[in-house]
Design brief:
137 residues; 1 helix
Amino acid sequence: MTSLLTSVKTTASDTDYYIPVGDLTGQIYALNQVGGAFSLSTAQWAFWGAPFGAGGNRALSSINGAGRGILRDMGKTITSSLRTFRKIQLVVPGNSTLSTFGVGGRATGVGDDYYSGFIELGFEGNGVPAPVAHYGR
């Protein structure tokens, strides 16, 4: 019996980030559980509505245009109804997140989850892919 880990790393070290190449507003989803069923809905921090309003949200301004933010690949994939989603986390620019390596948000709000969510990859022609590209180191 070996004491070595037998799991396989699911994120490559050279492509573990995404960068928006278009507007991602409303295209980042939160995973919700109602009873025993799971569903995806737009993450609260990723659309032009409550609780942040239409302006002044630096998380939203990091995803609403090409090259404005960086999304960390969190290594989790969900496939449902022939659609593929990948878990990401927004790396927020700014001085207030230096001590947390760019992680912002909060854990108490439904759909916030430290600015994490799921983007659709659109493999094999199913679904509409989010406008992102791999961003290597």
